[in-house]
Amino acid sequence: MTRRKTIYDIAELANASPSAVSAVLNGSWEKRRISRKTAERVKALAEAHGYSRNIQASVLRSARSKIIGMIIPKYDNRYFGAIAERFEATARNHGLFPVITCAQRDPELEAAAARELVSYQVETIIATGATDPDGITDICRAAGVRSLNLDLPGSAAPSIVSDNRGGARDLTLKLLDACHGTAPGQPLLFVGGRATDHNTAARIAGFRDGHADRGIEVPESNILACGYAGAKAYAALDAWTGDLPRGIFVNSTISLEGVIRWLGDRGALGADRTLFGCFDWDPFGALIPGNVGMARQDVNAMMDEVFRVLGSDQPEEKVTLIPCNITDAG
């Protein structure tokens, strides 16, 4: 069998020092003032010869792994997909190696994922949308690993979350104003999510705030916090006994599928029938007739804040709210 290439072999082929090759392969070459031409030559040779850095050996030598982990709840969601993509790019720009695992909103899987990441000697774990963020923080603290919460807050580590209440209020006002010409003073329906979840509870509060700003009372029966799945949104609307609503606040793009199917089945889909707004953004959802606007969470700003906090020596265990952007339809 052919002997596996070492960093010294790559250095000889590239006519560079082993330390320069190491800097290129670990992403710190720009700080070392190594030329881009040399860096590209080293990367090309490493790829051509199938070289991969021995991470465990590197950890033993430097006492730093430069590995950063993220636990996310779902893959099949544009919002969490955008977070994962931005996390990977930002981590690499900071000279870190990102590792992502999905825990399916299961606290036992979250804990198992945290322990597994710790075993790989990660330096930091970011718990995104975790059901038990403080449990993950406890595991990290016991292992001497930093932790941070994203999307859902915890009490034991810094948390960066969207301003769900403010975004929901702004979207509610936009939808109420759009419905005013044909249904002045009529409250909207709120569909989707679980009232016990932090984000849904904050959005319901913002939904009520928006109505209060317009002097409109919201009956409890107009809050259909039925779960996130599209089928559950459809069933909740089907069981609703009121008249066809003029406006619907949809709590997530996951629930939006059920809302659109329900409106379509009743011939109520369109700008001249039932209008809707959705918390969180989807490019196809923005094109559906009757869409007034969407609350788009600022993933870039959230990730910038994550790495700003990680760069501080003693971050406060507080919740940082990142404003949402209210987009127009189309």
From TrEMBL:
Gene3D superfamilies: 3.40.50.2300, lambda repressor-like DNA-binding domains (1.10.260.40). Residues 5-62 form the HTH lacI-type domain. The keyword Transcription applies. GO terms for molecular function: DNA-binding transcription factor activity; transcription cis-regulatory region binding. Keywords: DNA-binding, Repressor, Transcription, Transcription regulation. Pfam families: LacI, Peripla_BP_4. InterPro entries: HTH_LacI, Lambda_DNA-bd_dom_sf, Peripla_BP_I, SBP_2_dom. It comes from the Bacteria. This is Transcriptional regulator, LacI family. The lineage of its organism: Bacteria, Pseudomonadati, Pseudomonadota, Alphaproteobacteria, Rhodobacterales.
